[in-house]
Structure formats: structure tokens, C-alpha cells
Design brief:
By secondary structure, the chain is of the alpha/beta class. It has helices spanning 15-24, 44-52, 105-116, 133-141, 158-167, 175-186; strands at residues 5-10, 33-37, 58-61, 72-75, 81-84, 90-93, 120-124, 145-149, 171-173. Helix content is 33%, strand content 21%. It starts with a strand and ends with a helix.
Amino acid sequence: MKNRLIVIGGSAGSLQPLFQIIETLEPGFPFPLLLVLHRQSNNESALVELLATKTQLIPREIEEKDSIQPGYIYICPADYHVLIEDNESFSLDSSEKVHHSRPSLDVVFSSAADIYKERLVGIILSGANRDGASGLLEIKEKGGVTIVQDIKEAQVDYMPQQALEIAMPEHTLPAVQIGKLLNHLAR
């Protein structure tokens, strides 16, 4: 079976649960992660450096035509939508913002769902707008696994709440349990 892709999206309050998830992943975790975070463009290298201290996976900012490979945490660059091509490589797009966001979780989730279908895992963490809810529904409709951070744990619960209402995900879990579920899926 071809590799899965894990796509994690979030906004305000999503860094702490993201760190909890990746710190929970077992050594040799086999699937690439794609992070779609609403953030300022001036803190790109800081995020790569922070992630590198938390995991054995290799964090890197996506560049045009990068091929998706196991062992990496790919980070969507600020101010670009990221699309996934048929050959499982990335394409950067600077079209209109969606939900006031670029990168938009909805855009990335939808593009990933088209390519990965049932091999995709979509995760929504803490955040302050509804970006990602429709994309998570697309992942679910195409057979992927859908996960939302428990709203009782989310620092900002609006984004996960919208995802719960619109996508009705299979799993609603605290961050550490999300990491444990990903380990289970990797076995």
C-alpha cells in the first residue's frame, strides 16, 4: 500500500497541541506530515527550528515541486496555498485568501483529499475561524480519517467546533491521544 499523508491544520492556540502530537509519535514514524498553520511570514525559520527539537522527523518549509517523502514534516509557507499534484509533489499558489487565510486549510485539505483519498488523515486543532471544516468533510467523504482536537482542550475552540458541526469527524481527541492514534494507524 502506498504511504498515507497526515495533514494537520490550526490557527490560534495550535502550536502546543501540535508539539504534543509530534512528541508522541514513535521513532521511525513512517508517514509524512503536512502542517497548515495560520501564521505570520516573519517566523518561518523559528518554527522549523522549534519542530526540530521535538521530533526525529525532518521539518522543512515547502518549496515548489518538492516531492512528498516519509520522514518529513512539511510546513506550508506563509502567504501561499499549497496544492498537491498527481505525482505527490507540492505546488504553491498565491490566489485569493479563503476564510481570510493563505494558506487555507480548506484549500490544502481538498487538494490532498483529491490525491490521497482513503490514505489521508486530516486533523484540525485550535483556531479562531471556520477554515478547515469544509475540507475535513471532503476528506471524510473520500474515505480518509478525520480527527478534531477536543474542544475542552483547545485554547481557541471556534475552529474545532466548526469542524465538529460541519464534518462530523470520526475522532475527537486530546492532542496526546491524537498522537497515539497516529501511531496505531502506522502499525
